[in-house]
Amino acid sequence: MIDFLLEIGFEEFPPHFLKPAADDLTLKIEELLKNKKIFHRSVRTIYTPRRIGAIVLGLSRRQKAQIIEIQGPPKKFAYDAKGKPTDKLLGFMKANNLKSNEVVSKRTQKGDYVCGRKEIAGAATEDILHENVPAIIKSLEFPKTMVWNEDNVRFPRPIRWIVALLDRKPLRFSYGDVQANRYSWPNQHFSFKPIRLDKPREYMNFLRHGGVIVDPHERKKTILTRIKQAAAKAEGKPVYNNEMIEEINCTTEYPEVVTGEFDEKYKSLPEEVLMSVLRAHGNVIWMQGTNKYIYVFSAKKKALQNVQKGYGRVMDSRLQDALFFYQNDMNTGLQKMLEETKGMMWLENLGTLFDKAARLAKFAEEFKPVPEFDIAALKQAARLCKADLLSEMVREKEFTSLQGIMGGYYAQSSGESERVARAIAEHYLPRFIGDELPKSAEGALLSITDKLDNVVGAFLSGNRPSSSYDPLAVRRNGYAVVNLLDARGLNISLFHAIDRMLSLYGKDFDARILTGFFEERVARYLQDKGYRYDEVNAVLAHTAWDADIADTSRRCEALKGFRDSPEFIKLAIGQKRVRNILKGVEKKLAVDNELVTEGAEKALLQKGKQISTKILTLVAQKAYPDVLRLLLEMRPVIDKFFDDVLVMCEDKKLRENRLALVSYIHDLFLQFADFSEIVIEGEKTSR
Amino acid sequence: MKKVHTFENVILNLKKFWQDEGCLIFEPYNSEVGAGTFNPATFLRILGPKPWHVCYLEISKRPRDGRYAKNPLRFQQFYQCQVIKKPSPKDIQKTYLQSLEFLGLKLKEHEIRFVEDDWESPTLGAWGLGWEVWLDGLEITQFTYFQQAGGIDLEMIPVEITYGLERITMILQDVPSVFDLMWNNTLTWGDVYRQNEIEYSRYNFESAPPEMLTTLFNSYEKEAVRLFEEGLVYPGYDHAVKCSHLFNLLEARGVISISERAKYIGRVRALANKAAELYLRGESE
Question: Is the ipTM of this complex over 0.85?
Answer without folding.
Answer: yes
